[in-house]
Amino acid sequence: MPNAVPALREAEPLPQPYLLFLGDVTEPGYAKTAFGLRDWAGERCVGEYACKGATVTTGLPFLSPPQARMLGARSMVIGVANPGGRIPANWIPLLLDALHAGLDLIGGMHARLAEIEPLRNAAVVHGRRLIDVREPPVGLPVASGRKRSGRRLLTVGTDCALGKKYTALSLSRAFASRGIDADFRASGQTGILIAGGGVPMDAVVADFAAGAAETLSPDADAGHWDVIEGQGSLSHPAYAGVSLALLHGSQPDVIVVCHEHGRERMLGHPHFALPSVEDTIDLALRLGARTNPAIRCAGVSLNTGALDAATAQRAIEATAARLGLPVADPMRGGPAFDRLVDACLA
């Protein structure tokens, strides 16, 4: 696994292993925290728990909180990232189940666990912790725009929840496997849970967001790479501000554009069409040049998870031919991914 992010959050180590809570989710894209932990920290996950009516599953055993506690779980993680980061009322009884069973609660929502009175009271009664990882560091600066030492790669997306985190994690691991000093830099709640530290960019006050991105990837040795987890999309009607702050503050030398094959409409905003990969590359390079005139696009990460192997290969080859750039699905690996890594490091 990639190197962990230095502890930018002042927090105690998270209680592990985890029981993953899926709420009442019926859209897989909104369960990206649960899937991210399953795929990148599977050894720390004992099972899943959900409301009646949920249709999304990680494939882990369905366990009640008492069962999970008997199997060694120490906390239940809210594995959902829904629009607005809210905690609906129908989740509360199940969250209370976890506290009653002796599990701490970990949340990555905009809604703070300790601000929900029944949870706060139950935590006191049962001696449990309510831990919110979507809490930015104190004292973040306004961005300076100063060029920093070291090298940086940022994953940029055509939309939310389509592979920016997985791509950054895969590239970090690939760099390390080649003997390159590299760190994965987490910018969202799932990445922070995986890596153990980072900055939740969408929880930072807007004036300090680019400064937070500078803090996330500080000065480093000339040969060091920070591989930075992207957020949202520069074309997203709701979240473009977070994406732009991250782009300006990261000052990436290299971007990798992430896209899900076949996705045509914005997740949660179906009245907006996705921008093309070409337009996304152009926009990111024009805006990114403001703080790093040498920015370049190394290639494209194409999410082909819904395709069989042969169809995925054809999609990757066709996209590479159209763009004239390396294209790969990092989760499939292979020669195409090796070419993408080569292009990043060129």
From TrEMBL:
| The D-glutamate N-acetyltransferase-like C-terminal domain, residue ranges | 142-335
Entry's SUPFAM superfamilies?
P-loop containing nucleoside triphosphate hydrolases
**Gene3D superfamilies listed in its UniProt record:** NAD(P)-binding Rossmann-like Domain, P-loop containing nucleotide triphosphate hydrolases
Give the domain of life: Bacteria
Annotated D-glutamate N-acetyltransferase-like N-terminal domain residues: 46-136
Q: Which InterPro entries match?
A: DgcN-like, DgcN-like_C, DgcN-like_N, P-loop_NTPase
Please report a single Pfam family linked to this protein. Answer: DUF1611_N
Recorded protein name is: DUF1611 domain-containing protein
Its source organism is Luteimonas viscosa
